[in-house]
Amino acid sequence: MYAMTIEPGDTVASTDAPHGVRARLLGPLELHIDATDRAPSTPKLLQLLAMLLIRPGRTVHVDSLVHELWNEAPPRSARRALHTYVHHLRRHLDPGGTGDLLVTSPPGYRLEIDADVVDVAEFQRLHRVGRELLEAGDDAAAAHAFRTALDLWSGPPLANIHCGPTLAAYTVYLLEERRDARDLWIEAEIRAGRHREMLGVLRSLTTADPFDETLHAHLIRALGLSGRRSDALASYEWLRSRLEDELGVKPSAELRELHRELLSEGHPVR
Fold first, then answer.
1. Which domain of life, per UniProt (predicted)?
2. 3-state SS assignment for residue 85
3. For tag attachment on the chain, is the N or C end more exposed, with fewer CB atoms within 10 Å?
């Protein structure tokens, strides 16, 4: 997974997470230490903290931090400025001065926390469990796992960060993971026989994202399984028209197959 990528020179922390530390990246960044949010408000410090949190317990190279903070135009004093930012962040995170959370770890810096204290790790675990349950045919349990994973999100990832190249790529990765979990959740709910209950959700999602063919396929399938064949056909025709008129493309093979099933049998394929 992206969050666990090791770069050349990275080292893995051997200590456990400090007591009472929890971090949130699936929304605005938060870092709670003993129930107090210690995330700084200064943009560069927040950006630096985010870089350390996406590789929890691992050394993040100075060059990676400079690239994130200043992209392709770092000032001559970039390394000195980074050292100052680290000093201020360390004092902000640890006012008592014990110095055991943000440590210098050549060739960079490291947060001495376990990956499990970051909400991304829990999301990825539930995502994996959901996939395994879906493959095993336990559709209701899979739907619950995916729903629980999606409930961890409170908004766009790192919503309060001005992201440089590394964090911007990381947010794209997380959003793709969320989209996959959402699609698998819907599939699991439909397989579990909750197609009628999902219609409102699917109407809302397809309205918000009118060119997402996977969502439309779920909606058409759910309508067909709910005995609403005419509505399913109308939804297909609406999408086909928009795709051809606005994008100049035809519906996907999956959608065309659903359409053929509706026309020939009156029920979409499962």
1. Bacteria
2. helix
3. C
